[in-house]
Design brief:
The structure holds two protein chains of two kinds. Chain A has no helices and twelve strands. Chain A is mainly beta. In chain A, the strands form three sheets. In chain A, strands 2, 5, 6, 10, 11 and 12 form a six-stranded mixed β-sheet that branches. In chain A, strand 7 and strand 8 form a beta hairpin. Chain B contains no helices and eleven strands. In chain B, the strands form two sheets. In chain B, strands 2, 4, 5, 6, 9, 10 and 11 form a seven-stranded mixed β-sheet that branches. In chain B, strands 1-3-8-7 form a four-stranded antiparallel β-sheet, with no helix packed on it. The chains are: A mainly beta, B mainly beta. At the A-B interface, strand 5, strand 6, strand 10 and strand 11 of A face strand 5 and strand 10 of B.
């Protein structure tokens, strides 16, 4: 069965510090990979996605993610975090076989001044 | 203009009641979804419709019945509500480009359902 793992339930960083949120997936082929952000009381917004090609993907709000096939990972990064980045972050995997789409359990980000 | 809208935003009801949540998208997308987010923020897909046809129907109780009167609407009707149905329900839509699972989904703001 396919799965998406976000090992960090909660991360706290200082404003201006760098950020890396981890995501691992289990799937036989290269899946479609996404990162979504959910601000408090809001729906989910797409940050970036990977289908194929360049393994370093740039997204909105200064985020980027790198697909590493050998590690089955798609970690999200930002060089300098802003207080407005405090939110819940979800990694997601899509596979065309069975048209399935799975979310990870999310990582809650707190930004301290 | 809101791209994906849901009504109501909050829904508080008693066990055993029947309720509906409405979803509308004005993006011209042909695929719509319902997700359930539990108290631990875990998101799980419930249903997916493409051009008014059901394409994903995960294991959910048959008390949950989606209804798609047209491409722009996917409503969720829930019969005989139970305590465990309390959650936030998200509607989403996408345009079928990459074969389904690779399409970017646009989410509504969510409906927080509380069953007492």
């Amino acid at each position: 069965a396919q799965s998406v793992t976000q090992p960090d339930i909660h991360i706290t960083v200082s404003e201006g510090a760098s950020l890396e949120l981890r995501c691992n997936y289990s799937y036989g082929a290269t899946p479609y990979l996404f990162w979504y952000v959910q601000s408090p009381g809001q729906g989910l917004q797409l940050l970036l996605k990977y289908f194929s090609g360049d393994t370093l993907v740039q997204g909105i709000k200064g985020f980027e993610a790198e697909f590493k096939r050998s590690q089955s990972s798609f970690n999200l990064r930002k060089p300098s975090v802003h207080w407005s980045d405090a939110a819940e972050y979800f990694c997601a995997v899509g596979q065309n076989t069975g048209n399935q789409f799975y979310f990870g359990t999310g990582t809650s980000l707190t930004v301290i001044p | 203009d809101t791209a994906v809208s849901q009504t109501p935003k909050y829904l508080v009801t008693q066990m055993g009641n029947d309720k509906s949540i409405k979803c509308e998208q004005n993006l011209g997308h042909d695929t719509m979804y319902w997700y359930k987010q539990d108290s631990k923020k875990f998101l799980k897909i419930m249903f997916s419709y493409n051009n008014k046809e059901l394409i994903i129907n995960e294991t959910v109780p048959n008390r949950f019945s989606p209804k798609s009167p047209d491409k722009a609407h996917l409503n969720l009707h829930i019969n005989s509500l139970e305590l465990g149905d309390s959650a936030v329900y998200f509607c989403a839509s996408s345009q079928r480009i990459s074969g389904g699972a690779g399409d970017t989904q646009y989410f509504g703001p969510g409906t927080r359902l509380t069953v007492l």
